[in-house]
């Protein structure tokens, strides 16, 4: 209290809220934050679960349900409930990868995937992921009682440019400033504190629900460098579920194309069975109206092909990094599917050592992301945050004859830039086609097309005279921008390339605007509903009083009340909650003298020895 008696209001720095780390998983998503120097995961779902199943259900009335509740709706509403949306991020509807995936309905004719779900407008994977992120943000805000606006979001090391961009856009759509996209294996290393004092070469083996990633990290003087990465964006515990489900469907005598609802039910039961088999030698469960039983040794045999597939990828990554299993100093397990005993055995054998395991493999990525979010928001000097990462796939340009010229090799440390000078091949040529590709193969058609654009406005000159430098720049998130410049004349034109399977800035803006518009619609809808409930109550009360005490009505009163009732009934069918409120008020007014008479009579009767309960 200051001497003049006013409460001294401390002028705090603008509160920053809580920065969080988010593991936006294919199967499960988690949010964590550093609290009192310790990273911890935040409860985000039913029963204080630390995992939010990455499942989003779109209801007929336009409502959106996220998490375990959504997953339960998947069997019955297969096409309106989007699971494993991460597999669709940054992909087009006719990608081979996309076509393999499941039972969803795609809106026709679009360049990006749009799920045709209940409730009207089709949704993109970015919007679906945005819902997952929004749910995590809200729950973290409730948990910390403060706003959450800054996040580090993790992505598989294997994600290409379009997939990274899509993830960043989803964050933005959820109202998050994405501090950094962080490779999941790198996050795991951070959680193990490998940045502090450890030396040596470590392997991060991450088998989740839908993606497999391997990273080989080398630690020198507290700084770690990712020596190599590899993976398979379509391999994980989901495949184990399918291995069981396939046998179950066979037992059930299901047709070639079983009903989506049956498939979803059998898959859900198979996942539970698989998880139970981690601790039990055999399991019994029911699905499709029959009881099934699976022994662990059979399960182990069914999943062997998938487990061995991870081995192929691991050997290649070791070769890329130039290390042998014997030279490794540690193996970190990440991802729920590494709980499967057959996987643990295989990994131990492959690398010739028992993996580290004192941090929960399900949480380790989110915890590491929280560590980086904390560093990025609290470090005095940003250069103190040393984190070297590599680009997962080579980046290049199409040259004559449909050949790819690589400008940036895979496993190059990021951020990085590279340039290449091109020239015109025809006299007077004023435009140059630039086709940006990602991948390891030699021919254009075997790589992923990231973007195409034409640099126009080159002054007409003789063939071979123009000098166009195309520059690639990869930022710390692993996202590429490309610029092109004609050098000999000083004419310059820079173009920032957006991935062809992503959304434009305008589309993102529109979605943000839409979500605000919908928020208003949502409030409006709620007010209408609340007012209707109120009107319902008033009408029931009026009916009751008129029925019981009709004898107390005066000349002409009934007609006035009836018309007020009719007006309320009429407006209840509409959407205008203000008019409805007025009508309810008018009904109150019209019936007040009558209700007062009813009350007076009641009081008179109580006084006369009746109790109120007799009414
Ligand atoms: P993602 O990173 O893809 O979101 P997670 O790391 O959360 O995936 O792993 C999810 C996978 O782990 C699922 O396939 C799930 O069934 C599996 N899983 C979770 N717990 C167990 C368990 N106890 N035994 C076997 N598999 C498990
Ligand atoms: Mg994961």
UniProtKB/TrEMBL annotation:
InterPro entries in the record: ATPase_NBD (IPR043129), Heat_shock_70_CS (IPR018181), HSP70_C_sf (IPR029048), HSP70_peptide-bd_sf (IPR029047), Hsp_70_fam (IPR013126), ISC_FeS_clus_asmbl_HscA (IPR010236)
Keywords for the protein's UniProt record, in alphabetical order: ATP-binding, Chaperone, Nucleotide-binding
Residue spans crossing the bilayer: none
SUPFAM superfamilies for the chain: Actin-like ATPase domain (SSF53067), Heat shock protein 70kD (HSP70), C-terminal subdomain (SSF100934), Heat shock protein 70kD (HSP70), peptide-binding domain (SSF100920)
GO BP field: iron-sulfur cluster assembly
PROSITE patterns: HSP70_1, HSP70_2, HSP70_3
GO MF annotations, alphabetized: ATP binding; ATP hydrolysis activity; ATP-dependent protein folding chaperone; unfolded protein binding
Keyword Chaperone found: yes
HAMAP family in the cross-refs: HscA
Role description: Chaperone involved in the maturation of iron-sulfur cluster-containing proteins. Has a low intrinsic ATPase activity which is markedly stimulated by HscB.
Recorded family membership: Belongs to the heat shock protein 70 family.
Protein name: Chaperone protein HscA homolog
Annotated organism of origin: Myxococcus xanthus (strain DK1622)
